[in-house]
Design goal:
mainly alpha; two-stranded antiparallel ribbon
Length: 497
């Protein structure tokens, strides 16, 4: 039977922080890289062929690094208070703004689940030797809904089972298959096999230029409009989430030196693995065979079949599915803890404070599951599963980018409103340094946000107006919900006084 948890978590219990000096530069770098890296992004970047270098560089330099440094300052300053981005924005502005930020962080995560579960469905399709199921909307949708609820039920049992699954899932289901695809691509090249990105269709000018009647890969995207850059939003999403580890800055012995070093290391690791893994897919897989969910497994199938070890495709599919499930398990209760925090702070109705005997926020997770089920049904009702997959990505990053804009603005404002606040780490360069780092991040995020409303020219989206309208409506609805909730709760709290 559920019970009401009215006690706010203490600093130690809410953050799980260690003692100062207990975290090394490498530990934080690997933690951050683990939070960022996901195999599901390799086909998305591979579909951009050699222009992927432009997108990955943009995401790394203009998004990953600024987000890491600004969140490090905010995380270190308010680590003892807990609450993450809710506390950061609340301290800079007010409770309503803080609730909007944490709600957007939570809801984008909810919209992310069908994306990673769609990737897991494709992995299972290849595991059981039925690759055609990866493009079957009913299979992908029903699989996503069923597995999500299974993960939720396991989460209700507490953190011990979650930690066992996630600790093994990242190494076995993400790192290992990633290394395998890179090594096999090298073997493919050494064996003198054809390199797919050298034979691009001339009908896709965004990634290929035509000289003397022969298409050549581009390194810089061919831009005739923002639709040609629409994939930028999805690639930026792959680098999102770095702020969740900012709180660990106070565990470092010399945070001013160690934290930026850790972030640059994490950026380098992420850049290398994303680039090499995506390049491996582009080397092996013809352009017209790359799709957003199953492209990785098409590459595995082509590689292993060529070397007469096709059964390894099934193994890689199973490992990748396990890695995706571990990713869901690792995030399923974390972001929703932020909502539990706001409920305890009077920003949500009391029934959302409910937790079970394991301290898991049951009512919030039930609502979360219902939303995931509705979003996963897009796979069932849309004709093209890849379009549904990308549409969910666009909606997800749009919501997340609004939160990042609020975070950057909070970092700048707090330098003025709370100049004497003790900060374990400070963005270097004084106020001008914060304006530069946060300003660059804000502008990059704002540009990426605008791009999310343009349908990608590389995908058959059907009606561009319908696509854009759906993203606009989704963004307005999900931004409007927390504003409406805050207004209602403020009136209720005033009446209760």
């Amino acid at each position: 039977m559920a019970k009401t948890n009215t006690k706010k978590p203490t600093a130690g219990s809410s953050t799980g922080l260690g003692k100062p000096g207990s975290m090394s530069t490498w530990q934080l770098a690997l933690m951050t890289a683990a939070a960022v890296i996901s195999l599901r992004g390799l086909p998305m970047m591979a579909q951009e062929e050699l222009t992927m270098f432009f997108y990955i560089l943009f995401a790394t330099v203009l998004f990953l690094i600024p987000a890491s440094l600004v969140s490090a300052e905010l995380g270190g300053a308010f680590a003892a208070k807990g609450g993450g981005v809710y506390t950061w924005v609340k301290e800079a502005y007010n409770k309503k703004a803080g609730f909007l930020a944490i709600f957007l962080q939570w809801i984008q995560n909810v919209a992310w689940y069908p994306i990673v579960l769609g990737f897991a469905a494709a992995a299972i399709a290849y595991t059981i030797g039925k690759p055609e199921l990866a493009d079957n909307g009913k299979f992908v949708g029903i699989f996503s809904i069923a597995v999500y609820w299974l993960a939720t039920l396991l989460t209700f049992k507490g953190s011990s089972i979650v930690s066992k699954i996630t600790s093994r899932g990242f190494l076995i289901g993400t790192v290992l298959p990633g290394i395998v695809i890179i090594v096999m691509a090298l073997v493919w090249i050494i064996g003198g096999n054809p390199i797919a990105f050298k034979e691009l269709p001339a009908s896709v000018p965004e990634i290929a230029s035509v000289t003397a009647g022969h298409p050549h890969p581009r390194f810089f995207p061919h831009m005739t409009g923002l639709s040609d850059l629409a994939f930028l939003a999805g690639i930026v999403l792959l680098f999102a989430g770095v702020e969740v580890h900012a709180v660990h800055v106070r565990e470092m012995k010399e945070p001013q030196k160690q934290f930026p070093a850790a972030m640059f290391l994490a950026a380098l690791i992420s850049f290398a693995l994303f680039t090499l893994g995506s390049l491996a897919v582009a080397i092996v897989t013809p352009y017209d065979q790359i799709n957003l969910r199953a492209g990785l497994f098409v590459s595995f199938q082509q590689l292993f079949s060529h070397y007469h070890i096709g059964w390894l495709t099934n193994v890689m599919g199973l490992l990748a599915a396990f890695g995706a499930l571990a990713g869901v398990m690792s995030w399923i209760s974390g972001p929703s803890r932020g909502l539990l925090w706001t409920a305890n702070d009077g920003q949500l109705p009391d029934f959302l404070k409910k937790t079970n005997r394991n301290g898991v926020q049951t009512h919030i997770l039930f609502i979360q599951g219902a939303i995931v089920s509705v979003l996963s049904s897009l796979y069932i009702i849309m004709d093209d599963v890849s379009v549904a997959f990308f549409l969910l990505s666009a909606l997800t990053i749009g919501l997340y980018l609004v939160m990042y804009m609020m975070m950057y603005a909070s970092g700048i404002k707090l330098r003025y409103t709370q100049p004497d606040l003790k900060r374990s780490y400070k963005v270097p360069g004084g106020k001008m340094g914060m304006w530069l780092i946060a300003g660059v991040g804000f502008l990059a995020v704002a540009f990426s946000f605008i791009v999310t409303f343009f349908p990608p020219s590389q995908l058959p989206v059907g009606s561009p107006a319908f696509y854009t309208g759906l993203v606009i409506v989704g963004t307005v609805v999900f931004v409007g919900i927390p504003i409406l909730i805050s207004t209602v709760m403020a009136r209720r709290n005033r009446k209760g006084q």
